[in-house]
Amino acid sequence: MEVVIVQDAQAGGELIAEGIADLLRRKPDALLGVATGSTPLPIYDALTAKVRSGAVDVSRARIAQLDEYVGLPAGHPESYRSTVLRQVVEPLGLDADAFMGPDGSAEDVQAACEAYDRALAEAGGVDLQILGIGTDGHIGFNEPCSSLASRTRIKTLTEQTRIDNARFFEGDIDQVPHHVITQGIGTILEARHLVLLATGEGKAEAVAQTVEGPVAALVPASALQLHPHATVVVDEAAASRLKLADYFRHTYANKPAWQGL
């Protein structure tokens, strides 16, 4: 995989947003896979700025959701559907019908998982999937020891992940659902380009294990090593435990290989 070390989160967001803009110039109806949480916000902010300045046309772009809580009522402000609509779809000026995601309030959740997996394939597959990474190396909600061949499915959140996410529920862990629907690692790996953004010293160990450690279910993000086109963008703090940090700085010089192609 290519590893690009940038100065800070804003620089990482701008870099990835320009990569997305390049993709949309080549393929205006590209399907973009988006992640939630605080880490990817600089990407969405930078992409929105490009749209508003006229630097890129996203009118035909499509958006696909990575995961969703199970059991939250439709329209709940902290559902990932609501979050993606609020943070991505609306700022980009897209219609709600440009968005697709799993139904976390479905009566038959397993059937909803299978339906979403099929819908992604029928849509032509994800062209570029944005990913974050947990401190334990999870991607999406594929917690440690998830199958590297897993498909979209129901997962039980670990206590640590529920603690981490309580900040989105007024700090009350009792409001955080216990289960989620998540694209599986096997599903994620079917995207044509995977772009992971990680910032902060707290992600440094997970980044090092993902990039330089063995491919192992204990570190789900390490499966990116199996992908033919994976890009990891990290700030200096998140890169602090990479043994090959100097090599990555020299090789990519803040410019991933996908740019200019």
Automatic annotation (TrEMBL):
Description of activity control: Allosterically activated by N-acetylglucosamine 6-phosphate (GlcNAc6P).
Name of the featured protein: Glucosamine-6-phosphate deaminase
Lineage: Bacteria, Bacillati, Actinomycetota, Actinomycetes, Kitasatosporales
Organism field: Streptomyces kanasensis
Pfam assignment, any one: Glucosamine_iso
UniProt-recorded Gene Ontology molecular function terms: glucosamine-6-phosphate deaminase activity; identical protein binding
Record family assignment: Belongs to the glucosamine/galactosamine-6-phosphate isomerase family. NagB subfamily.
UniProt site positions, description: Part of the allosteric site: S146, R153, K155, T156
GO (cellular component) term, any one: cytoplasm
Task of the protein: Catalyzes the reversible isomerization-deamination of glucosamine 6-phosphate (GlcN6P) to form fructose 6-phosphate (Fru6P) and ammonium ion.
Catalysis: reaction(s): alpha-D-glucosamine 6-phosphate + H2O = beta-D-fructose 6-phosphate + NH4(+)
GO biological process: carbohydrate metabolic process; glucosamine catabolic process; N-acetylglucosamine catabolic process; N-acetylneuraminate catabolic process
Enzyme class per UniProt: hydrolase
Xref: PANTHER family: GLUCOSAMINE-6-PHOSPHATE ISOMERASE (PTHR11280:SF5)
